[in-house]
């Protein structure tokens, strides 16, 4: 990977190391609007380093950049123990967004490096996206549009959401928002969560029963060691052949090879995917060619208002962590 660097050092006092901080900005969403926030960095004596990032920085990329960095505004970069041990000056990771599954939080805590995120940042746009997938499958809008453009006049069989059961795996902030939207359409809701909760309008069931009974299954749990490949060959075998699965959480929660096999063999009817095991999704992925698969490039968080809030909160978190310093 090639690196391009953009700094504010020309306007910063560099009398000694305590006078300014060096910050790596690797979050693509922040990079795209960096000019808007240059006054903030200059006012707070922060020199910014901006590497070229396609989707995220891997461990090897970070090892080449991190040694003299005080803070990072990161995306889904791979902050491993090896990276942290080379980051002798690192005080804070300010994650742009919510998910921190790509960060070794245990090692960061051992070394006194603060890790901040913005909880509940994208609940509404992600929940909207889940319903968009469900409605697309139930009302066949994408397929009807393609057929009409090809000159066909053929009425495709559809179904009302009131006739359907939605299973939500992970009834946290986003899962709850999905449920509220689905209830307004009259759907019956089944829920499954590691915590013992009883949300309004939801029948909490085992994962097995949820998979067997649901017409639509929405993945809304965190990615962690217990949810890695939570849905695989055995789980797809339990689902209805008419069921659709929707993942707007994290790609590795679904075992992608098993999903491709289930779609090919018509063990399930469809999949709506915003996230993938490896991102960006390979141009050669079979998923790109499947008519029963709706795809998006990890874009369910798209919302100007949500992004603006996360930009500001991330900067606040960065400054707080820089001023607090390393705790070890």
UniProtKB/TrEMBL annotation:
Write out the entry's keywords from A to Z: NAD, Oxidoreductase
One term of GO molecular function: NAD binding
Domain (D-isomer specific 2-hydroxyacid dehydrogenase NAD-binding): residue spans on this chain: 131-300
Q: Does the keyword DNA-binding apply?
A: no
**Cited PROSITE patterns:** D_2_HYDROXYACID_DH_3
Task: Pinpoint the D-isomer specific 2-hydroxyacid dehydrogenase catalytic domain residues.
Answer: 32-326
Q: What protein family does this chain belong to? A: Belongs to the D-isomer specific 2-hydroxyacid dehydrogenase family.
UniProt name for this protein: D-3-phosphoglycerate dehydrogenase
Q: Which organism is it from?
A: Candidatus Saganbacteria bacterium
